[in-house]
Specification:
Largest sheet: 6 strands, antiparallel, barrel
Distance between the termini: 32 Å
Radius of gyration: 20 Å
Shape: globular
Strand content: 25-35%
Strand order of the largest sheet: 1-2-3-6-5-4
Helix content: 25-40%
């Protein structure tokens, strides 16, 4: 299958309790769907401000694969819209749904999220389910810059065709330039004349749901050779910044860095710890090799996640 076929086949159509299509989601591992928290509350006829994680099952199907067979999922990760981070910015409206019966149709592969800090002016495609269009429709437009709350802005192309609106929430955004999914649609501007909508970029999703990178990395379809498609795309400047952050700014006690790999062997194996123990190279050279290996094995996001949980200010530019 082509990447765009994988994209289409992994799109989920989410139903409410009256069997009406109300939004979208998408498969991100063999066991998990990603969607918006407000799609879940609407599906279950709950108040949109619901804080406690819902317990009822969500019904969905994969319309490009089988429009007759409905599957069930339960809410596993819950971050409603009202959630705030330490800087009081809204980062919520995310729900991780775990497949209840762990059965997915043939030809469905998880979508691999790609992170990028520069999506401005990239053309995008998106498939959603606006009112009265339960079979789904395509919308097209251009991605713009991010907002202070971490959301990204996107704008419809011209005045023809569908705009991103209600029913597109939870849908994955296909970046035509990156040839990958770079985020999830989350809200619309109610003024139809503006044809503006908003999305959560992949890096915001990884930041909000810390286990997400492990779920994506655990699925072999997200690996292209040795490199993960959701892996951060570090340019040479960012890579050098990260190396310098570890060597100069990160804990002066090298044992603390070693312990990260020692205590997380199930994630990293033994090679990273052994590399740090290599006395044939100076510490900076060891870190250069270490960063290269984290990138090549698709484990850089997980490393940054673990470090930032303990040291929140670490390498905040990356």
């Amino acid at each position: 299958m082509t990447d765009i076929d994988i994209y289409k086949n992994a799109i989920a159509r989410i139903y409410n309790t009256n069997n009406v299509v109300i939004g979208a989601g998408f498969l991100i591992s063999n066991q998990y769907l990603l969607t918006c928290a407000h799609v879940v509350t609407e599906a279950l006829d709950l108040p949109p401000e619901t804080v406690l994680k819902p317990s009822k099952l969500i019904q969905f199907d994969f319309p490009f694969i089988n429009r007759e067979e409905k599957l069930n999922a339960e809410v596993d990760f819950w971050l409603p819209y009202q959630s705030y981070d330490s800087s009081h910015q809204q980062i919520g409206d995310i729900a991780g749904l775990k497949l209840h019966n762990k059965v997915i149709p043939d030809k469905v592969q998880p979508i691999c999220l790609k992170t990028s800090h520069n999506l401005s002016n990239h053309a995008f495609s998106i498939f959603g389910f606006p009112n009265q269009r339960t079979d789904g429709v395509w919308a097209y437009g251009t991605l713009k810059d991010t907002l202070p709350n971490g959301w990204g802005q996107m704008e419809g192309t011209g005045q023809q065709g569908y705009r991103v609106q209600g029913g597109f929430s939870g849908a994955p955004i296909w970046d035509n330039e990156e040839k990958a999914v770079v985020g999830m649609a989350v809200a619309e501007d109610k003024n139809e004349q503006r044809r503006i909508a908003f999305f959560l970029p992949s890096q915001a999703l990884f930041f909000a749901w810390t286990e997400l990178s492990s779920l994506v990395n655990a699925d072999p379809t997200c690996l292209d050779g040795k490199k993960s498609k959701m892996q951060l795309n570090l340019n040479e400047s960012d890579k050098n910044y990260l190396i310098k952050a570890i060597v100069d700014k990160y804990l002066p006690k090298q044992d603390d860095l070693k312990n990260i790999f020692l205590m997380n062997k199930t994630i990293f194996g033994n090679n990273f710890y052994i590399q740090l123990e290599n006395q044939h190279n100076n510490f900076e050279t060891r870190i250069i090799y270490l960063v290269d290996e984290l990138i090549d094995t698709g484990k850089l996001n997980k490393f940054l996640e673990i470090v930032r949980n303990k040291y929140p200010s670490f390498a905040n530019k990356i």
